[in-house]
Write a structure and sequence with these properties.
By secondary structure, this protein is of the alpha/beta class. 44% of the residues lie in helices and 17% in strands. The strands form two sheets. A six-stranded parallel β-sheet has the order 4-3-1-2-9-10, sandwiched between helices. Strands 6-5-7-8 form a four-stranded parallel β-sheet, sandwiched between helices. It binds D-glutamic acid (DGL).
């Protein structure tokens, strides 16, 4: 048994979509969330820079006593998790676009994926899509501009709607029946996407899978907290804390920290 917190980081507020699933499944676990909004978006940055930022976040979470780290960012996972696993002793959980379930379940043989440039150009993403995308048309779309709007609290803005329409139009034209959200910020766009996509399109993200994997790894390492405890959740932002508070929509401690 281990009551140390689980560390979670993302390029900003988006990874709270992953934190939410972890907290729902493991309410007895304490968590420390780092929103690296100051450096958002990670998506257009090169691999080296994404690795550097991931190291900075990891070292802060280790300093704060975290027993396991969830890289709640597809861009950081696909570019940096290998380096992190090789260089730090704590277990890491990553998040990757859910290509596999979409490719296995599609009936129209066409799926869409919306992700950042950093994720779509990564070696890890190509490996996964080559492995499971056989015979399936995968329409890849970089969600340029979406993360900055979310980080600015503009989820329901006309600019957002226009960008989403533009990005999903080629997918609709190709008759996709699954849309994979390959960025942890994008689950916050699901209500809007549902109004823009045909009814038969299923939207999938990786939040629940990451939460289950976190539970499995905690158990494997015998570092779960006792279920009789209640976890304490702390959130740090190096950007605008009010945006993080707004997206959480609950009364949690959000602190400003320069990291
Ligand atoms: N939320 C992140 C992801 O899952 C990063 C988005 C970005 O900073 O560009 O990819």
């Amino acid at each position: 048994m281990n009551t140390s917190p689980i560390g979670i980081f993302d390029s900003g507020v988006g990874g709270t979509s992953i934190w939410r699933e972890i907290h729902k499944l493991l309410p007895h676990e304490s968590t420390i969330y780092l929103a690296d909004s100051k450096n958002a978006p990670y998506g257009p940055k090169g691999k080296q820079k994404i690795v550097e930022l991931s190291i900075k976040n990891t070292e802060l979470l280790i300093e704060k006593g975290c027993k396991l780290i969830v890289v709640a960012c597809n861009t950081a996972t696909t570019n940096a998790i290998r380096y992190l696993r090789e260089n730090y002793d704590v277990p890491f959980i990553g998040i990757e676009p859910a290509i596999k379930p979409a490719a296995l379940q599609t009936k129209s043989n066409a799926i869409g994926i919306l992700a950042t440039k950093g994720t779509l150009s990564s070696e890890l993403f190509h490996k996964t899509s080559d492995l499971y995308g056989n015979g399936v048309t995968i329409i890849e779309q970089i969600g340029e501009g979406l993360v900055p709007l979310i980080e600015n609290g503009e989820i329901n803005s006309p600019e957002m709607e226009n960008l989403l329409k533009l990005y999903i139009q080629p997918m609709i034209a190709t008759n996709i029946d699954y849309l994979v959200l390959g960025c942890s910020h994008y689950p916050y766009l699901i209500p809007k996407l549902q109004t823009l996509l045909p009814k038969h399109v299923t939207i999938i993200d990786s939040g629940i899978a990451v939460a289950k994997q976190t539970q499995t790894i905690l158990e494997q390492h015998s570092i779960s907290a006792p279920t009789s405890t209640t976890g304490n959740c702390i959130f740090y932002s190096n950007g605008k804390p009010e945006i993080l508070r707004d997206i959480l929509q609950e009364d949690y401690t959000v602190e400003t920290l320069d990291f």
